[in-house]
Target: (Fe-S)-binding protein
Amino acid sequence: MVSKRIVLHFPHRLVNQPIVYKLVEEYDLQFNILKAFVTPEEEGLMVLELGGKRENFDKGVEYLQSCGVKIQPLSHDVVRNETKCTNCGVCVPICPTEAFVVDKKTRKVIFNDKKCIACELCIKICPPRAMEVHF
Ligand code: SF4
Ligand code: SF4
Model:
């Protein structure tokens, strides 16, 4: 048996398709959706725990990839380089899990890494490239 937490990136055309349910029907996998949302670019994003027999798990992952779903293991951390962050606030509205909040008193942007699901949206948009992926 295997159980992994993974992030699925769905292209726009697949957002309303019941792809994940096929994992149950055809590959006898169990899943638990931890987060699901549509990003501003209208890409679907889902964080789920997926488990089952190793052979079925691998086939299920192959099926997802053949449909055009990008799969990212939740095995890396997103961290902020505090010396680079300028507290510009660009990352605050983009983060789907509200991992960034502006401190009302100091106006500084606080990063709560416990909320981060490593979707990497902030990596691309942070102007001084303060958000980094650590494997
Ligand atoms: S976008 Fe980058 S520089 Fe701006 S507040 Fe967020 S982490 Fe800091
Ligand atoms: S990677 Fe960035 S945008 Fe994505 S959840 Fe983590 S902090 Fe938010």
User: Anything to note?
Assistant: The radius of gyration is 17 Å.
